[in-house]
């Protein structure tokens, strides 16, 4: 069983967390070094994922690409290696570097997820995002109800208090909300499920960004979060699963409502 320090440790400082809910990719996980490498990785990765280069298209040759990005060939080679590891591209001696078919991309990679949802998102993107959450989080809530220690439940309740206090400020609300959902994954006591926390981070932050302009803020979601905690504390496995599913359903409803409103405003030239 994971201890509570691991279960609810904050994923980011508040200053860096503010960057999570912006419109840039969450982070670059493929490169040990940051800075220029990560910047170039994000730039090229986003261009591939948004379709600037379609599957089968060759990327520019190394000299042209290095000049266009303003980086050395060494930096570019490292970035290409990372992108190949994510399944986006392949490099062969005679044919050069080409974009691979989307069916071969690793969409579970946090960077690829972030690049996919870097823009406002479509209805299809929203469906995929929430199907992912439904496949993971209700089960995790049920396991947490079976396995969480009293100390873990108490810590989750403390995180809920933070959420209640920040419910009228979507940006402040996002950090404890992220901790809340990641904690439940780790409270399962299953290290494999706990390791999905980084993946869920990207999916959750995307949800937060899409709901930033809810007119009533996040306060309507607080009772739904509270109900999940109540079911976990009561050792109600099925109740915890159901409560988490209801929470996710409501979040998707909010996102779809916001996207529809944005589309209407755009159609009206607002």
Can you describe this structure?
This is FadR family transcriptional regulator. It comes from Taklimakanibacter albus. Helix content is about 65%, strand content about 5%. It has about 270 residues and is mostly helical. Strands 1-2 form a two-stranded antiparallel sheet. Mean pLDDT is about 85; it is low at about 1-35. The protein folds into 2 domains: about 5-20 and about 120-265, Four Helix Bundle (Hemerythrin (Met), subunit A), CATH 1.20.120.530; about 35-105, Arc Repressor Mutant, subunit A.
CATH domain topology of the largest domain: Four Helix Bundle (Hemerythrin (Met), subunit A)
Number of helices: 13
**Which structural class best describes the helix and strand composition?**
mainly alpha
Question: CATH homologous superfamily of the largest domain, by name?
Answer: GntR ligand-binding domain-like
Oligomer: single chain
Shape, principal axes of CA atoms: globular
The CATH class assignment of the largest domain is Mainly Alpha
Strand order of the largest sheet: 1-2
Point out poorly predicted stretches.
1-33
CATH architectural group of the largest domain: Up-down Bundle
What's the mean pLDDT score?
83
Count of all domains: 2
Largest sheet: 2 strands, antiparallel
Write down how many β-strands occur, each being a DSSP E stretch of 2 or more residues.
2
Radius of gyration: 20 Å
| Helix-strand sequence | HHHHHEEHHHHHHHH
How far apart lie the N and C ends?
52 Å
Short descriptors:
270 residues; mainly alpha; Four Helix Bundle (Hemerythrin (Met), subunit A); Arc Repressor Mutant, subunit A; 2 domains; two-stranded antiparallel ribbon; 2 strands; disordered N terminus; FadR family transcriptional regulator
